[in-house]
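Hi C.,

You asked whether I'd gotten around to modeling the 108-residue construct. I have! Everything is below, sequence then structure, no commentary in between.
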Amino acid sequence: MQRLKTVPEAWLESPVRPYRPARAEAGRWLGVPQVIGGIELIFGTVWTLVTLPFRLVFGLLGLLGRLAGLVVGFSIMVLGAALLPGPLVLIGVPVFAIGLLLSLRSLG
């Protein structure tokens, strides 16, 4: 019985070997030198530290706005619920619904 020859990979026999990328270290991008990665890391850290106070202030203002909307919405709900048992039920239902929607919108 004759043994069949194995077929070698095509890139081994081609006269012009195709480009094979070199292996990179784990966690590194191919083609990005370490100097650029270090500069990017330093720039990102400085940018985070510079913008941190602004992000905290704007986050606090957003939180205060949501809390104000929640308080106003709850107050409108209470007003609508107070108008429900009396003769102004036609006004009380939409007022309650608007307060409920405003409260739910403020919760996120």
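If it helps when you're writing up: The mean pLDDT is 81.

Thanks,
B.
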